[in-house]
Amino acid sequence: MKMKYVLSVSVLALFAAQAAMAGSVKGKVTPGKSVVYLESAGAPTPAASDKPVTMDQKGLRFEPHVMVVQVGTTVDFLNSDKVQHNVFWPSISGDKKKTHNMGTWPQGQKKSFKFNDPGVVTLLCNVHPEMSGFIIVSPTPYFAETDADGAYNLANVPDGQYTINAWHEGKKLQSKKITVSGATTADFTLQ
Ligand SMILES: [Cu+2]
After folding, report:
1. CA distance 176 to 18
2. How far is Cα 5 from Cα 11, in angstroms, rounded to an integer?
3. What's the 86 CA to ligand 1 centre distance in angstroms?
4. Strand partners, 36
5. How many whole angstroms from 128 Cα to the centroid of ligand 1?
6. How many A from CA of 66 to the centre of ligand 1?
7. Which of the residues 49, 104, 137, 144 could staple to 152 if both were Cys, CB 3.0 to 4.6 A apart?
8. Fold topology of 46-138
9. How many other β-carbons are positioned within 10 Å of the β-carbon of residue 1?
10. Domain layout of the chain by residue ranges
């Protein structure tokens, strides 16, 4: 009994120590409605959830227009329209070797893809050239979409070295190296 008690206390102490090392990154990205995500410079980060997320094609639009997922996430591409849609991407972050065509399918059907490469995926439909959408595949679970004013807050980020990336449709991706140690700030103005 005494051993068990001692173990419980040390486990609690360990949790307390880990909690104390968790920082946050907050700041502002101009323009608003941007995406921020962290790349870890060293320490491994928790794996993605097994739960798939849905990218819908509805009303001749990708819905949502912009989605952020952690690397290793499966995206279910659903067609909710009466017309057939296709899904393809010409590259991931400009790497044309990572091009992929999911094919074309009718209303009510979906096809799934697991994103194992981080980066920016521009979704297109070869049936409707005006359609586009974006999936930002983050290498870590530390990502956010900023609010309309550009504010974001990444909570529970373990202290350490990271690269923080900020993305907005039509703007150049910006990256900064940061050291997270408690409350950390990073602001961006995207061009
Ligand atoms: Cu389409």
Report:
1. 25
2. 10
3. 6
4. 144, 166
5. 4
6. 16
7. 144
8. Immunoglobulin-like (2.60.40)
9. 5
10. 23-45+141-191, 46-138
CA of 118 to the centre of ligand 1 (A): 25
- Taking the centre of ligand 1 as the mean of its atom positions, its distance from the CA of residue 133, in whole angstroms, is 11
What topology is assigned to 23-45+141-191 in CATH? Immunoglobulin-like (2.60.40)
The pLDDT tens digits of the residues spanning 64-93 come to 999 999 999 999 999 999 999 999 999 999
Q: What is the pLDDT of residues 119-129, one digit of tens each?
A: 999 999 999 99
| DSSP alpha helix (H) spans, the chain | 2-20
Ligand 1 midpoint to CA 72 (Å): 26
Same fold for the pair 23-45+141-191 and 46-138: yes
* Distance (Å) from CA 1 to ligand 1 centroid: 65
pTM as predicted: 0.88
Cα–ligand 1 centroid distance for 79 (angstroms): 9
Least confident of 12-16, 103-107, 139-143, 176-180: 12-16
